[in-house]
Amino acid sequence: MQCLSHIRVLDLSRVFSGPWAGQMLADLGADVIKVERPGRGDDVRQQGYRARDAAGNETAETSSFLAMNRGKRSITVNVSAPEGQELIRSLARNCDVLIENFKSGDLARYGLDYESLKQVNPRLVYCSITGFGQSGPYSHRPGYDPIFQSMSGLMSLTGNAPDEPGGGPQKVGYAVSDLTAGFYAVIGILAALNHRDHESGEGQYIDIALLDAQFAAISHIAMNYLVSGQVPQRMGTASPITCPYQGFECSDGYLMIAVGNDSQFRQLVQLLGMPELADDPRFTLNRLRARNQKELVPMLAAAIKTQPVRYWQERLDAMNVPCGPINDMSQVFDDPQLQHRQMLVHMQHPTVGTIPQIANPLKLSETPVGYHRPPPVLGEHTDEILAEMLGMDGAAIEGLRSRKII
């Protein structure tokens, strides 16, 4: 048994945030039923790189879909048709959780909003994920990850300073606001299930906004501003409050060094052959080093550039000074620590064959994460779900298919 083996989730979401939440619930054992549009499916079935089968031929499966839909069963339903809406209501009656990321108000037109489905299943935990939330002056707006990175302040923090090469705002290199919202959604769902099962006996509505989630995740940086009144500036890989705490160029690549206290700084400069810097009144304390890093960093950088990454990493590791190479993706997968932690797993897919998957990082001692189903082919489980959950026979299912409801 897994933590959520008793939970069934109806996943009406698309693209990244909702599917990411659904995949995490599936990894923990939930039966996640992914509802997709007939013929086309989730938008990300058309995004990303096409996976190739064992013979090297492109398949219909994309890297984006494979990244966040394992563990689910796929059913295709035409939600815009009244019969399709009734199917969703019937499925929701037998589920614990519903996840959706339609624009605010869209599902109410179909009678599939929380207030409507609460009437057929009072125990349903209903999680809506939208760009701006269900209320407020922007609630009607669509949006994608870069919009929330920009509006939350994240892009103002990311990138090099304006007076440096390549200076200016940059977005984080992945859809961080989508995945952050997905994490918050899982927390909210688990909290609501706990309250239902141990307190109220009833479900509730969860309103998640990508803008809210990304803003909240900025956390201590926002608090730095609230406490100091100073608007944070872009500093590349460096930190405004700790130094040296940034990437350094070595003779064959880049190394991130994160000195967290004064004793680590003393060890670093001893290694670099500049022990006098530890007693320099400009650099004796972390706050002083942060204030004077324009004077300090060039001296350190000149010494570090003379040797390769591995040279410095081995010596800094021996001194317990935190550091790590700035890896590209090919190097990440060769990292012995990630290999030891089994962060890459493989599954058998019905059309692609063996597919790689980025593992769930949760390590649970008694109810470990499981990888029971690969990301589904579009509509792969339609007949199975309708027969199992709604008791439909083959003729009834074929009737729905002939009327283009499934």
From TrEMBL:
Note the superkingdom of the native organism.
Bacteria
GO MF: CoA-transferase activity
Transferase recorded as keyword: yes
Keyword match Nucleus: no
Pfam families per the record? CoA_transf_3
InterPro entries named in the record? CoA-transferase_III_domain, CoA-Trfase_fam_III, CoA-Trfase_III_dom3_sf, CoA-Trfase_III_dom_1_sf
Q: Which UniProt keywords apply?
A: Transferase
Name the UniProt record assigns to this protein: CoA transferase
